């Protein structure tokens, strides 16, 4: 299963109004979101090749039509342990900081339009010292945490303090 998204269409709609178009996805019982313009495609789980000495949140790499793609385990990044990937898991392929990367998530939920004014700042929590969450949105009864993908990929979130402690 692969879903291709046209970022030109979505980004032009976003620029015309004060609405953010968000792709929402699940990791466990938590809902996360990212701007749809960052999503290149959504593909079914494919086994990755592990890399030696990679950070704990780096699941490995895979070949995506000739491009070597690093896949990051979002469950590990947020401190819930490593994902036991099955055929129901998906990889959200994103463009971030001039790179293409993949996020391993449990499932993709929806694409929603959110008024910019509805995005609330994330509470200043010691647990989120790496700034993985850029904001929060209330959708019906669900709170969606908007991710800062650069921080997820760069730091790996909750696992990073442990890696720093081992280095000291």
TrEMBL record:
GO cellular component: cytosol
Stretches assigned to the CheW-like domain: 19-158
Transmembrane segments: none
InterPro entries associated with the record: CheW, CheW-like_dom_sf, CheW-lke_dom
GO BP term, pick one: chemotaxis
Provenance organism: Bosea lathyri
Protein name in UniProt: Purine-binding chemotaxis protein CheW
Cleaved signal peptide residues: none
Domain of life: Bacteria
């Amino acid at each position: 299963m692969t879903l291709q998204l046209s970022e030109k269409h979505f980004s032009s709609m976003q620029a015309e109004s004060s609405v953010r178009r968000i792709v929402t996805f699940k990791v466990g019982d938590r809902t996360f979101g990212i701007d749809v313009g960052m999503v290149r495609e959504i593909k079914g789980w494919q086994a990755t090749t592990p890399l030696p000495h990679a950070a704990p949140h780096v699941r490995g790499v895979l070949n995506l039509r000739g491009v070597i793609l690093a896949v990051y385990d979002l469950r590990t990044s947020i401190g819930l342990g490593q994902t036991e990937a099955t055929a129901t898991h998906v990889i959200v392929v994103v463009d971030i900081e001039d790179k293409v990367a993949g996020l391993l998530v449990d499932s993709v939920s929806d694409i929603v339009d959110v008024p910019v004014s509805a995005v609330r700042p994330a509470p200043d929590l010691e647990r989120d010292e790496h700034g993985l969450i850029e904001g929060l949105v209330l959708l019906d009864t669900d709170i969606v945490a908007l991710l800062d993908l650069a921080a997820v990929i760069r730091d790996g979130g909750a696992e990073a303090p442990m890696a720093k402690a081992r280095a000291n």
